[in-house]
Amino acid sequence: MEFSYIFWWVIAWMIFWALVGSFVTRRIYLHRDLDTSNATFVGSMLGAATGPFGLAPLWMKSPDLTNRFVVFPALGAVTLIAAAFAFADPSNNCVANGSFVASQIVNGLIIGIIYGFMALGLSLIFSILGVVSFAHGEFYMVGGMITYFATVVWFPGLNPALGILIACAMTFALGAAFERMFLTPMYEGKIERPVEYGILVTFGLAFTVQYFVQAVAGANPVKTQRYIDFPRLRWPSAEDPWLVKSSRGNMELFDTVSISNPRFTAAVMCILVLCALLYFLHRTWTGKALRAVSQDREAAAIAGINPDRMNMLAFALGGMIAALAGAMLVQAFSWLPQVGNIPAMRSFVIVVLGGLGSLPGAFLGGIIVGLVEAAGTGCIPDAQKAASYIPAYGMIVLTLTLLLRPTGLFGRRFASGTHGKF
Amino acid sequence: MKKHHTPQLAGVALIAFFALFPFIYSAGDYDYIMHIAITGFFYAILASSWSMLAGYAGQFSFGHIGFMGVGAYTTALFCHYLYLSPEPTNICTEFLIGEQYLILVNPIGVTSSTLTQDCLRQALSIWDGSVQITPMPVWLGIILGTIMGGIFGLLIGLLVLRLRAAYLALFTLGFAEILRATISAEILITRGQAGIELPHLFDNGITLFGHAFTRTDKLPPYFAMFFLLLLCLGILAWLAKSKFGLFVRALREDQDAAAALGVNTTRYKVLVFVITTMMAAAAGAMQAHYVGIITPNNLFLLQMSLVVAMAVIGGVENFVAAAIGAIVIEFVLEMLRNSFDIGGITVDMTIWRLVIFGILLMLTLRFSRNGLILPLIEHFTRGHVAKETVAKRAAGASS
Amino acid sequence: MTNLAVKGLNKRFGGLHVLKGVSFEIDGPELIGLIGPNGAGKTTLTNILDGAIKPNSGTVYLNKQRIDQLPPYEVARAGLGRTFQVTRSFRRMTVLENLFVPALALNRGHSREEIAQKALEVLEFLTIDHLRNEYAQALSGGQQKLLELGRLLMLDPEIVILDEPFAGVHPRLMEVIYRYIERVNGAGKAIILISHQMDSIFTLCRRLLVLNYGDLIADGIPDDVKRDPAVIEAYLGADEEESNGEQGGRAQS
Q: What pTM was computed for the model?
């Protein structure tokens, strides 16, 4: 980055005006007896995007802060950062190379779908039990491990679909058993601080499972074969396949966007299971019961639903979702007992960004985080640094979310209200 | 009301035991046992300060190990990049302070090539032994590390003011991860996974009571860590007895009610963060000097898990119980290291002991929420209250 | 002389307009009942007075000091104390420690011994002195209500807001609460009493405020308020909209 100072000065300028905007706007709205619930957020975003030029008219006119004022300044701020980056480093791959950018975006979307899917499980658990499961990453890891062991070690040559099914069944059982054994006292009001108890005990599970797998499977990375090969496609014509060109392990669209097979199949699988899950939640009795419990435990209990059963189902299902994501990705990444740590972290980020307990929020959050990570890894000039910082990108999103909009995109008011009360 | 002195007596006995232990114990594995004890003290500081944060104030922070890392890396960078020299090198960034030049060594990252020596090494090879440079004093590094830990604790404490329960846990965990990622990524300065070497706690040896110790002797670091632990426990005990302890416990029980009764919740929440993170940073800085190297792997979630588990198994709502739990568990974990064979299968206890430990953690949480050591202490300190109340109730019922 | 001036309080929760320009004034050691159907905005009003939430607009002055933008602990120090609808004692602290919290938080320069003396006197007055070393969680629901009153006695504010002090309390303990009200009121402090128990309100209070869906629909002596057609309608009409009221109540708490 030869002109990197441009970039950092722009960032500094944005932060300065965001701070000014957030404080002053709130003051002014308070002073004029207006609704201040959005003032901090809008003030900071408008300040970041436009500096004094946008803030001055806002302060003078102080209009009602509708959704329009929430969305556009936020987009503007992102655009400004991107523009500053482009000016500062015009030769960077993610500025100059259009096909690289397209590729990053498509791959960000694909991986984002998988992230979102995994986070969905965490969100499901939270919305029903009020517990943030710190063992989510371990379910992901175990899902991949069991699939590997089933298809490679125990029954070599087993159909991967069966391997995945075994993994799902076993993690479902693990989740259900753990819930019965360790989480039940939470519902009976026997525990003073249920939220903290839930965190600590799932933390204990994570610790145990991680070392159990390490003791059993060793610390060497493992990986499965591709589950399905792409068919060989040349389209529109074999000579000039500018639209689609695929080999067994890779697919190229428009001659620019390259998608690897394992990620693609994983994303497709996630979407299919997501559809099945939505059907389950909205069309079956059990699914409706689950949603009812997540909205109002007492009312659901009065309506004849056993909330305890739903707790078990939700925890097992949430864990299984993570395991499924792991089972699909064990064909893409090398698998170690510690492999779940970063995805777990990422799932936390996503559910906070989407709003704890919100399922659509989790999915949208997953895609946003996928794109942010793609941008981060693609744009930081030093490739090694970019890879090392992967856990940090999500955390920056998390910090911004918690500072600016603690309820997340679709969140109910959990952040500072009574939360997880049983 | 009859006073019970059992806990005080037990405390004095414990302190006396650990103070005399290095002089009594003389088996062949002396150094090894001392090393375990020092590490045990280190974890005891972390666990007891975490218990103040989580058990008393109810702030379940998972960033404690990150603050430990702040302390360790501050002193590591300080000792690695700053030197005093009587002569200017003319290649480094340097400032004249009094008689001496403060040399700021340029970072060169991890490199095996001798051609890219840092500026100070180049200058030294030019001087060829004619100039003596002075490294920074270790104690100053530890103090700076502690202060830096406090600053980070202040910032994080302010950021998490509005967050409760799960959000707080996630955010602090995120902080620790960002820190680890940054240290791993900024190889040029922090040397990444290779880690930074630090001078030993007593690099030039030390003479105590007429006995000269070399820098690898375990006795001086044992007492250094032991006194740091006692200092921390002393501060914690004083805090717990004062109104600070009362307020942070009220904060844990019900923040809104505490605020409605005039407790400045903001101030005490931030304060408890700053104080406990300073302790973690001090312990981290001292341990880093004792071990002689700090790498980002020391900041893994595993370490945090250990601290949490030690505090929980000891008893998270009492810092003494947490400290004792940490020392006991550190010893037990080390003792369990020996692998053994059953029917031709080697059981690798270095991993299995952690599995057992995890199960113990879960079972403790499930069946003995006050930990395993705290109930013993409570038995002695609060036993009379139950008796007294029973007696009063009986009296009230008969009248 | 205690003076609380509330002017034009507005509060919205999203689309819900919970308080619509509420104004009233309290002068001197008044004993005021605040009533209204569920979801009328009583708890929200309490939370705003106490500083726990900020109003969208409007002002609150306590003895000429503006308190609507202050955090709760400064409001408490300025001289406004409250109890909570659902009892919120510090459950894993002893009864005595519960009482020490407000006394030490105020930091009025009393020694530990004086505070302990005062705490014991308060506990005796509330008839729970035999429980002083018990954890608060060991107390019955009614005793915990008394403990909350005890904390208020230690805080000794100019104005006390009691949120449903009689709900689910044994008649014998009810006597104690009446005594508490007499003592505080007799000492020249104002009390705002929120309750659904109309007979208690009508026997105790000399002035009533009636809230209905965020509007202050009546303010006067009990006999006038009883005959006010708006109040009668609010209370009779409340039944059919009870479910709505519940929703509103939840959004506030």
A: 0.85
